[in-house]
Amino acid sequence: MSDLRWNEVQERFPNEWVVFEATKAYSKEGQRYIEEMTVIDVFEDSSKALKRYSELHQQAPHREYCFFHTSRPEVVARERYMGIRGPR
Predict the structure, then answer these.
(1) Residue 84: inside a domain, yes or no?
(2) Is residue 54 part of a domain?
(3) Domain that holds residue 49
(4) pLDDT of the chain, 88 residues: tens digit per residue
(5) Quick check: is 36 in a domain?
């Protein structure tokens, strides 16, 4: 599936949980704004979407996977800190 904007995802998958990879996004004030995405899977159940997201994240932690319900007006997430912990 090609890159989609959120409104296109909402039209194709109404009232569903979608697991996707962000392909175009930017950060601002601690928030991650996702502009384009590639849908990987669609679920009716949030726990199944979370499980799929976790599997993908474990396989490729450097890729930007997310899951949202299509009832959300926009896809904005809290930014994750990807730092390295130093010795204590």
Answers:
(1) no
(2) yes
(3) 6-78
(4) 689 999 999 999 999 999 999 999 999 999 999 999 999 999 999 999 999 999 999 999 999 999 999 999 999 988 865 545 445 4
(5) yes
